[in-house]
Amino acid sequence: MSYEPPASYRVPPPHDSSPSYSTYPWAPQPQPEPEPARHQHRHAALGHHSDIRVLRTAYRWQRRVATLTALGYFTLFLVLSAYAPEFMTQDVTDGLPLGLLLGLIQVPVTCAAIALYEYTARRGVDPIAERIRKQSELDAKRAEGAR
Predict the structure, then answer these.
(1) Are 119 and 125 in contact (CB under 8 A)?
(2) How far is Cα 64 from Cα 84, in angstroms, rounded to an integer?
(3) Measured in whole angstroms, how far is the alpha carbon of residue 111 from the centre of its chain?
(4) Confidence class of residue 10 from pLDDT cuts 50, 70 and 90?
(5) Whole-structure pTM over 0.70, yes or no?
(6) Backbone φ, ψ for residue 35 (5° rounding)
(7) Measured between alpha carbons, how far is 36 from 42 in angstroms, rounded to an integer?
(8) Across-strand partners of 93?
(9) Which residue of 15, 49, 54, 141 has the smallest Cβ count within 10 Å?
(10) pLDDT at 73
């Protein structure tokens, strides 16, 4: 026994005369024409390029080295301040305790971390980024010439 709705409840099939019918998401969409095969380049597209991974790794190491330089010294200063107060109160010269001297040295250590960051950028990260930039310019020129 199957249930058949009365004829008055049946939905008529859609027709193409209504312009709003083509806006429904279930309406059949025209298939795009396939593009003709283009000349294949000897390297992969830039988004899949291994240089991007190399750049990411170099930049990650650059951040870690510079951050650990500055934060490592600051953490050492805090640990000595908390757990070795007698060491930090020793006088280096008349009226200058070791803790104050180590605190003042934090400024040059931070400057050294910035210099280390710039050095590693110039040595490791910038050449890779420049190579990727040149490759993307070549890819753009090739794509423009293929049109």
Answers:
(1) no
(2) 28
(3) 26
(4) low
(5) no
(6) -75, 145
(7) 19
(8) 96
(9) 15
(10) 93
